[in-house]
Amino acid sequence: MMQTHESRGSSLHRQVKSVARSLPDEKNTQSGARQHLDAPGTSVVDTPGTSVVDTPGTSVVDGIRKTSARRRGRSRMHGISVLIGCFGMFVLVLWLFSDMDREPAAAGPTNGTIPSRYEPDRAFRYLKQVCDLGTRPSGSPQMREQQDLLTSFFEKKGAKVSLQSFEIRHPETGEAVELANLIASWYPLRPKRFLLCAHYDTRPYPDRDRNNPKGVFVGANDGGSGVAALMELAHQLGDLPSDVGVDIVLFDGEEFVFEQGRDDYFLGSTYFAEKYKSQPPAVPYQAGVLLDMVGDRELRIYYEKNSLKYARDVARGIWQTADRLGVRAFVSRPRHTIDDDHIPLNRIAGIPTVDLIDFDYPRPGFGAPSYWHTEKDIPENCSGESLAAVVWVVHQWLLGQ
Ligand SMILES: [Zn+2]
Predict the structure, then answer these.
(1) Ligand 1 mean position, distance from CA 203 (Å)
(2) Is a pLDDT exceeding 70 seen at residue 215?
């Protein structure tokens, strides 16, 4: 996956800001407590007439005693308020370092059991199968192997498969590289046509990995999970309602990125969107669903804000379906704003497309360093249940169209 307007750093910044916003209350509470302790009339020590030391008519010595007692009292009270302040700060820091946005711990992505037609183990085997090819960046021999594997797979599932090829310049060497989107079609002439898509290239390097940024990037979640989910979903596509057709499109060149800021993202989806616009198909798509990073073991898919901007009704329909099915991994709250393959589909092709993405991998919070673009993005950090739950939701949403 892509780029986000809320990198983990800025997300952290946002969290800190949200804490800062709540600080005035904390401060008020603390200074309120301090005021309470210091206020004349509420402090036993300070109150004339209640303090034995302060009784009128006592000697000058008493006056001195009174002053020092008041000082002692004030200093004690000050100590207490400092303690309370410190405790408040301690709680605040604990809160800051805890997973503020974390949902209550859940055993899995669904409340109940996933129906047996969607098979978590099978979906996970697909994930392993593509990851076993190794890293799969655009133009690599592993990508070609993957194309062969998937062409044969989707043909066996009844699709007509084609490769939409195009050429780019390698961002590092300037040499020509052939890229190809893989398109698997079921019933392309039926009146209600939908686009289900993912990227199937992996980033060339795990460049956010602190230990080994030039290591091997397997991209189990970022690259593999969308492919595996759509393979699992393909088991359902031979048996669609009689007016529904589906294209599964796997985009190449989503992140053929060697240098952040220099190299372009979304090469395949942009090419696809431009072709769609210049040579419109006989039946246009009613909607698109992009799957990216949907394999996280701790799956939580929030509304992605660009999806709400461009395809609000599609997003609503999918989350409502999830809610009806008890797939609690779908959370009906917006969270990140993400640039992904759905941007060219919405902006260039005009296909209302949502991005189903769990960008918090494994979970939000300081205690969970992200696996995103690191060597930790491996099948072991993903789960078949997560994949099958997403497939269940997307398929049932499709049946309701
Ligand atoms: Zn990525």
Answers:
(1) 6
(2) yes
Regarding whether 172 and 56 lie in a shared domain, the answer is no
Q: How far is the CA of 60 from the centre of ligand 1 (A)?
A: 79
Query: What pLDDT, on the 0 to 100 scale, is given for residue 69?
Result: 47
Ligand 1 centre to CA of 222 (Å) is 5
Residues 124 and 212 in one domain: yes
Q: Is the pLDDT at 30 greater than 70, yes or no?
A: no
Neighbours of ion ligand 1 (CB under 5 A): 1, 222, 255
Pick the last residue of a domain from 58, 81, 97: 97
Q: Is 4 domain-assigned?
A: no
Ligand 1 geometric centre to CA of 251 (Å): 13
- Asked if residue 357 lies in contact with residue 306, where contact means CB atoms within 8 angstroms, the answer is no
Distance between Cα 167 and ligand 1 center (Å): 21
Boundary of a domain, candidates 74, 97, 120: 97
List phi, psi (to 5°) of 357: -150, 135
pLDDT tens figures, 235-262: 999 999 999 999 999 999 999 999 999 9
Is 181 in the same domain as 284?
yes
How far apart are the CA of 301 and the centre of ligand 1, in A? 16
CA of 206 relative to ligand 1 center, distance in Å: 9
Q: Per-residue pLDDT tens for 259-298? A: 999 999 999 999 999 999 999 999 999 999 999 999 999 9
Distance 373 CA to ligand 1 centre (A): 6
For helices 120-131 and 225-234, angle between their N-to-C axes, nearest 10 degrees: 130
46-58, pLDDT tens digit by residue? 333 333 333 333 3
Inter-residue contact 195 to 255 (CB < 8 Å)? no
Q: What is the dihedral of CA 121, 112, 364, 254, to 10 degrees?
A: 50
Distance 284 CA to ligand 1 centre (A): 29
- Which pLDDT value is given to residue 367? 81
Ligand 1 centroid – CA 147 distance (Å): 19
- Is there a single domain that holds both residue 68 and residue 114? no
Digit-coded pLDDT (tens) for 289-339: 999 999 999 999 999 999 999 999 999 999 999 999 999 999 999 999 999
How far does residue 187's CA lie from ligand 1's centre (Å)?
A: 31
If you measure from the C-alpha of residue 257 to the centroid of ligand 1, how many angstroms do you get, rounded to a whole number?
A: 9
